[in-house]
Design brief:
about 400 residues; alpha/beta; Arc Repressor Mutant, subunit A; Nucleotidyltransferase, domain 5; 5-stranded mixed β-sheet; 16 strands
Length: about 400
């Protein structure tokens, strides 16, 4: 359901009702495919004639296709509907060291992936991404590309559509989407990596049943995406959720953002590598994956470095728990492959911050961190069609992305 806005006195039009009902039917097909028209009518509460009109429109638009024919003891045999697997989305997960480009269908299944080293110069990154997207379009000429979604380790301003805060990339004021749109002819949607992971949970997980969710991403930096009452909270200029740059110690190590002692300088992959390096054991080219491998082999210095990282993650999460009181915190990061050992350390740090009641549920994401970001980028594009059909209002603090928690409207 959409949030109530008592400052907006415009009543819903018949077109708005049609858009909402279209989105309801499209989402039911997405989640329950293959599904018959009769089952769509029962699940949505819409009249069968209304469902038939909507599904025929979706078939003409090539979002939905007829699938197998069902078998019943008597009566007319139903034709089941499913999403058109020829509908495709181009996506990218941009990270400071490596960028992944992929093609996905409307159900979030990945059809192909390729990786490239992320150039240090932002304009070279833009050119490289445009070239890889065009390459994927050439490889998949049989697909109907709907748009491009890009996950970023930073924040962008929706009004200017420029990346305004990406300290780990060292980008500021970069127009990432415009040149790619001109090169591909496709609309580009951008989102912060943590917010993209929220979208992945909402679209492909079970976050639609959670009233308050925070996704914490741990990689080269630390980010947070906030999902409250069916909305992805972006805040002014998209800066909501920058918990990674809240200082834990104003006299601590320097952060890429220009501050000191920020949460991410204690809790990120880079922090864990620093802890290990301070033990005098690290060598040139030593990576976080190497650190994980050593710890899994029982190396005591690697284990100690990850323990310090996990405790710092928990300390920083205290601010999130007290400020937002979420029902659930989902953690995305390579370190979660050792969640059985590190998870309890994080939970123990958080318990001390709860003034009343129980702490939120804390769990690792169900999929690989890179997959979570890419799936979120898929959802960025899909929400234009699977959402409410209405553009979010441009409020003072910026627009919010509304996720598909809709009820059908009688017409």
């Amino acid at each position: 359901m959409r949030s109530l806005n008592f400052t907006n006195t415009q009543v819903a039009s018949s077109e708005t009702a049609r858009d909402i009902n279209r989105s309801v039917v499209l989402n039911l097909i997405r989640r329950r495919q293959p599904i018959s028209r009769a089952d769509l009518a029962r699940a949505s509460g819409l009249q069968r004639s209304t469902v038939s009109l909507i599904t025929e429109q979706l078939i003409r638009e090539k979002w939905v296709v007829n699938g197998p024919v069902g078998r019943l003891p008597r009566g007319r045999r139903p034709t089941f509907l499913r999403l058109n697997d020829r509908r495709a989305i181009l996506v990218a997960d941009v990270r400071p060291i490596q960028t992944t480009v992929a093609v996905a269908d409307a159900s979030g299944r990945f059809l192909s992936q390729e990786s490239l080293q992320t150039p240090s110069d932002p304009q070279k990154t833009v050119s490289a991404l445009a070239a890889r997207f065009r390459h994927q379009m050439e490889l998949h000429r049989d697909l109907l590309f709907e748009g491009i979604g890009i996950s970023l380790p930073g924040r962008f301003d929706e009004s200017t559509r420029r990346v305004i805060f990406a300290p780990n990339l060292k980008w500021s004021g970069v127009d990432l989407g415009g040149p790619i749109e001109r090169a591909t002819g496709l609309r580009v949607e951008l989102e912060n990596a943590a917010n993209a992971c929220v979208l992945a949970e909402a679209w492909f997980g079970h976050a639609e049943h959670v009233r308050g969710l925070v996704v914490v991403t741990v990689s080269e930096g630390v980010g947070a995406g906030v999902f409250i009452e069916g909305h992805l909270v972006r805040g002014r200029k998209g800066m909501a959720g920058e918990f990674g740059h809240i200082p834990l110690d104003p006299n601590g190590p320097a952060c890429a953002c220009g501050g000191q002692g920020c949460w991410e300088v204690y809790a990120s992959n880079r922090a864990a590598l620093r802890y290990y390096h301070e033990s005098g054991s690290a060598s040139d080219g030593f990576t976080f994956q190497d650190l994980l491998t050593l710890s899994e082999a029982g190396d005591p210095l690697a284990l100690s470095a990850l323990d310090k990282m996990a405790k710092a993650i928990g300390r920083g999460m205290r601010t999130i728990v007290v400020a937002l009181a979420p029902e659930e915190i989902v953690v995305v990061g390579e370190f979660t492959r050792q969640w059985e050992r590190l998870g309890p350390m994080i939970e123990a740090e958080i318990k001390g911050a709860i003034p009343i009641g129980n702490p939120p549920r804390i769990r690792p994401a169900a999929v690989d961190p890179r997959v979570a970001r890419l799936r979120g980028a898929v959802a960025l594009v899909l929400q234009k069609h699977f959402g409410s059909g209405q553009r979010p209002s441009e409020e003072q603090d910026g627009p919010r992305r509304t996720l598909p928690r809709l009820a059908a409207v009688s017409t």
